[in-house]
Amino acid sequence: MSPFNTAIIDNPIDVSRRLADFELTIDQILAIRDSARAASDDASPLMPQNAPGTLAYIHGVGALRSQIIDMDWSIDRTLGVEAVINTKLGFRIGFQNVDRSCDSTFPPMPRSEKGNGAAQLCRLPLFDFFGVVLETDADRVPVDNRHDSGAEIVTYFVMVGEDGSVELSCPIIANKRYAQFVERIFIDRPDDDWLARLDPETAPIDDFDVTVTFKN
């Protein structure tokens, strides 16, 4: 595999703009994350050992579909991968439990081995397979408004970490694991400095006096 740089989108404004290419919002991805994590937390100690991950996957896929399906997005089960697909935009999105997300140094690792179906949907891009050299790594990011029959559909996964971190990313799968990433879109992580995200025009007021009066 020829090495290339992964496109990482971390700035909240850029994330919102990139999600707009999918006709999605940050709130939709967070709702998927919250549903999966809540289901995992509901697992009882009396349940099988893999219950937290299984429940997170089942409810994660359900939330993925309930949040995204509309006139253009529909259920997709190509090669046995439970997902949603938008053939007009050229995107497929699945759900994946991972160890953690949104770490630019340590990419997410799936909690279970990836099957042959997912590997076929997330193969090395053709330009790398044939040794085509692109001028910039940005050329690897899928273009907007593509219209194809499915052969050029690009597959992403909503990747939810055990710590609640979540990203929307396009992996390349080899040897039943993520071998590389074409693009990673960081949505949210527990240690996010939310103060840095606040708009000063709408941020909470932290310096005001509360007037207390006593009833006679």
SSE arrangement:
Elements: E1 7-9, H1 12-21, H2 26-41, H3 51-68, E2 74-76, E3 83-86, E4 91-98, H4 116-121, H5 126-129, E5 154-161, E6 166-174, E7 177-188, H6 194-197
Parallel strand pairs: 1-7, 4-5
Antiparallel strand pairs: 2-3, 3-4, 5-6, 6-7
Describe the structure.
The protein is α/β, with parallel strands linked by helices and 216 residues long. The chain has one domain (7-131, 146-188). It is 27% helix and 22% strand. The protein is built from 6 helices and 7 strands; from the N terminus they run βαααβββααβββα. The chain has helices at residues 12-21, 26-41, 51-68, 116-121, 126-129, 194-197, and strands at 7-9, 74-76, 83-86, 91-98, 154-161, 166-174, 177-188. The protein has a 7-stranded mixed β-sheet with strand order 1-7-6-5-4-3-2. A hairpin with a 4-residue loop joins strand 3 and strand 4 (91-98). Helix 2 (26-41) packs antiparallel against helix 3. The longest helix is centred in the N-terminal third of the chain and has 18 residues, at 51-68. It is globular, with a radius of gyration of 20 Å. The protein starts with 6 loop residues before the first strand and ends in a 19-residue tail after the last helix.
